[in-house]
Structure formats: C-alpha cells, structure tokens
Amino acid sequence: MSNPRLAVDLGAGLRLQNPVLPASGCFGVEMATLVDLNALGALVPKTIFYGARAGNPSPRLAETPAGMLNSVGIPSRGIDHFLQHILPAYRRFRPPTIVSIGGLSIREYWDLAARLNGVPGVAGLELNVSCPNLEAGGLEIGASPENVAEVVYGVVQRFDGPVIAKLTPNVTRINDIALAAEEAGATAISAINTFVAMAIDVRARRPLTGTPTAGISGPAIKPMALRMVWETARTVRVPVIGMGGISNAQDALEFILAGATAVAIGTANFTRPTAMYDTIAGLRRYLAEEGVADVRELVGALRYEAFGPAAPVDAPSAYGPPEAETPPGQAARLSGTPGSGHDD
Amino acid sequence: MSDFPAGIALTAIGERAGALPAPHFAAAEITAQQEIAPEHYLMRLRDARVARGAPGQFVMLKPTRAADLHPVLPRPMAVYRYLPASNEFEIVYRVIGTGTRVMSERAAGEIAELVGPVGQPFRLADALDGLLVVGRGIGVCSLTAAAEAAAARGARVYAVVSARRPDALIGLDLFAALGAQVFAVTDAEGTSDPARVAEHLLPLLRLGRVQQVFVCGANRLIELAARLAAPHGVEVQVSLEAHMACGIGYCHGCSHGAVGESEEAPLVCREGPVFRANRRPPPTLDGRALQAAAHD
Questions:
Q1: At B209, phi and psi to the nearest 5?
Q2: Could you report the per-residue pLDDT of A255-294, keeping only the tens digit for each?
Q3: What does pTM read for this prediction?
Q4: B72 vs A55, A271, A343: nearest CB
Q5: What's the CATH number where B155 sits?
Q6: Are the Cβ atoms of A57 and B258 closer than 8 angstroms?
Q7: Per annotation, catalytic residue among A131, A164, A238, A252
Q8: Cβ neighbours of A197 in B, within 8 Å
Q9: Among A20, A81, B38, B120, which lies 20 to 30 A Cα-Cα from B262?
Q10: Does residue B285 surpass a pLDDT of 90?
Q11: Could you state, in order of their start, the residue ranges of all structural domains in chain A?
C-alpha cells in the first residue's frame, strides 16, 4: 500500500487530484511565493461580488483562544477586475479553480453566474451564501432554505458546471438548508462558513473588531463544524466539502470519516502556510499505515452506535445509522488515531 | 486615501525600484534570545533571505512550535537589525499577550517558522545629510534598520526615542553606536508630550539638518511630524502597525483606516507598512476638503 489513491470526485466533472483545498478567503495566488500551489486539490480565490465594494472598517481581525475573529466583509473590486486581473493568475496553475461568488441580493449571484459561464479557467462556482459580515444578504439569504434554493436554482440555470453551495452554521438545522440547496440543483455542498461571534475590549468597552460582531474560525470551531458536516453528509446525496477549523491530517480524517469527500483548510493557512501540504502528506501516511488503498473508502466510514430518534418526524434522519450499517453493539470505535500532521 | 490620523493624509509609497527578495516560508533557527528591558526581548534568527531584506520590512513570525495551533495567528515583527554577514536578523518585541509570552519562552537553538521578508521598505533619499527618526515604545524597532542604513551612507542620524518609562526606552545602544544624537523622552518624566517633542524637532527642521523624518509607534507623533515638517519641505514616512493574518495581501485583514464607498483602504501588509504622510491638501472649493482642513 505504498501509493494510496487520493483523487476524489466532487461531481459534475469536478475531479481533484487529492481531497485538500483552501477555504475561500484564506487563500490567494500570493501564496505561490511560499508553497507549490500545483500540489493542491483545487484553488479557491476570495469571494467576489459583481461590483466593487470596500469591505468593513478596521480593525478586521481579533484573536480568541484557538480561534480568529474576522470582520473583513469581503472587499471586492468586482467581476470585471476579477476576469482581467485575478483569474489569469490562477490559470497558471494546474488544479481546478473554484470561483467563490457572493451577493447582497439573490439577483447578484445569478448575474455573476451568467458572467462566469463558459469562462476558461473557471472549473466551478462556490456560492458564498454564508458570510456573516455583510450589510445585506448574508444570513437573510443563507439561513433561509427558500432563499438558498432560489440562489442555487438561478445559478444552475445560468452556469453550466459544478455549483457548490457554501452553508452557514448559524442556523438551527443545517440539513434543511443543505437539502434545499441539493434539491435546487447544487452539485456539492461546502460546510461550514464562520460562526457569528464577538469579543470585547473591557478597558475600551468596545468590540475588538470594527463591526460589533464578526465570524469566528480556527480550531475553536472544529468540533461544531464536524458535527454539522456529519449531519449534512447524512442528509444529502451530493458530495460534501468539509471545513471549519481543520488544521492537519488528523482533523481532515475526522471530517472525511464524518462524510466529507474533500476538506478545505482556512485559518490554518495563516498559522502555517504549509498546513495544506502537511495535511496531504499526513493523509497519505495514514492510508498507508491503515492499509487503505483509496481515500474514498474512508468517506462516511464512521462507526458509531445509534442514538436518539431513528427518524425525526418531519425531516430526513440526522440521527441513527443509515441502512446496511454496522449492527449496534459492534461499533463506536475509532481505531488507530493517526496523530499525523503533528509530527512534521 | 486614508484619513487617519485626523488631519494627515497617508499615501502608498509604491513599489520600490530594484528587486526586493520575494517572501518565503522558512524554519529559522533562533540563534539568541535575551531580555533587554522589563517585558522586552531581543530575538536573533538565522534566515539568509530575510537577512537581505530592506529597512522597514517585517516578518510574520509563528510564535509557537511548528504543530501548535494556539494562538492561531503569526505576529508581524519589524526587523530591528539586519546582520547579512551571518545570515541573521534581529527583532525586538514586548510581551503583551499569549503569543509574545510564548515567544519569550523560546530558547536559542529552537526553530521559529516565519514568512518574510514582507512589506514596502522605507525609502532613503539619494541626497541625505540627516535623517530624523521618531519612535515610541516598541515602534522604535521599525526605525532602527533605516537609521543604520542612513548612517552607513554617511548621513547624520537624529533619534527621538519615546516610552512610558525610562527602562522601556528601546534602541538607545544601537543609536549611540551609530553616533546618533538621541533625545530620550518618557511619560514618567513628563517629557514625551507632543509640545515637548516639538522642541527637539523644530530646530532640526528650521536649520535644515534633516531631509527626511521616519516615524513609528504613535499617531500623535505622526501627526506632529507631518505638521512640523510640511513648511520645510521635509518628507515624512511612517510605519504603521496592524493586526494581520496572512502578511502578504490575500486575507485583507489589515486594511487601514476608514473605508470608502467602494474602494478598500490600503493594506498595511502589502501597500505598507511604510506610507508617506502629508498634511491634508489646502482647502479648495470642494466641500469635503474644506471640512477636512477645518480639523487641522
């Protein structure tokens, strides 16, 4: 098992040489001076809007234990600037570029999809319906199954290729949103974006960020992200890209076992620009050590005991094992904690 | 561009002619670490590329060991001194939180990961007889490498070094070694308010002793220098501080100052940290400029 297979398929023709990609907003081709971008599963630029927007006032960053707050608010120079100046820089690299698009209105997503359809170098779209730092749109769109479905449906009508809906965790039941996106035509789901959060300077009696609330990311949110990815992956049939505090191969494997076909790394790129490479190397090592020939064998391979109601009355089951799962009493054991990613 | 501090316009300094070394990600050996003042540490690291950076540039230093995930962000650290002969450079930092506390506990021989060198450097004038640097607190660390470069070209260096207490004055030894004229001012001694600092600046400006003023560490010192230097045609460059995540321009976390309708304020990591500082333009018929000028 010296050369395990890492390639994954995210549907609609989006094939990745390995399941590790950057999370939008935590990556740019500027990183090419630091690391080899051709080793990644895909490239994901920062979210763009149709027109130019400044983003939020400073300070835009603050730190909390094992976490980072950002209130950047997606500054963007607009679609024309993106097509002329940013996308060409991404075309120089081999991995597919998934373009992340945002909007203050449902229509803005549709207009962006139309402009990006058929453009060379655009391998797919990720719909950022989950930024918590916008003055409009944002959670009004992302927390509503109806609005998310409308965004996705309109985009799918206008864009011939993979369409990934990136979901917010700031909802009671993420599977409702995921299912709405899938039914509207999303070919994959990204979960999750940042949690709405806050930190306060008690001397100044002011928020630590320029807007009172901000989005939190980093290891602090990983257990919550993992739970939501697990619920999402159990609900939808399309592939799920898991993200939220993933920093190393151990984290990535947790998300894959929970049902993610691929994983995105965000804040850890700041902590250590090689985080994505270390994760790929750690995955390879784990597969070899565990005698697993293909990473796809691990997707959703979590063993666990059933608990809670087998089928909630009004929704697809979020709890209880799916059919043809390991019989109760035999499971609930994650063997061979790899510890990889921590030993570089 | 930016309207901060009030009454001062900051403009991007532009790409420097002549190539700067591209930033890289490196595991740099810590070759020395010592406490130089209460809560203040000097760390020397070995990295050949950073050691060939330019005055005013900085590194993004991961304070913790390689696999540690808390705190999550690297720290922007100005290069205090370049030691290219030994492929080393120095930073000076104050312990103010978890990250800098962990940094202070690292020992010589350990590895510190970093991204650098990054940022736009100070621009020393071609014909430079005298350089005035004005720094407060740990901000002095952004000015020392520029002072060394100016002295190496034969320019006379004048340094206003400000701090809360005399034991927190940074860089006095370094400036002394350059033969600089040093004005040490502190809050504790009541000598650091702008009116008192102006007494040191004005003679140098009036007598034409300096052609450039570099400032870091306090907005009121930036404002003071820009205001006093303007009538004498002396250029003011400032180095700004900001919270940063990536340090190379893609995260947009360090955008500085107020935002416009659609144009983002400059990024401190990429367009800065060094900016030119000018008094706001003279009043015109444009209402906004008149209003801004009224704040002067």
A1: -70, -30
A2: 999 999 999 999 999 999 999 999 999 999 999 999 999 9
A3: 0.90
A4: A271
A5: 3.40.50.80
A6: yes
A7: A131
A8: none
A9: B120
A10: no
A11: 8-298
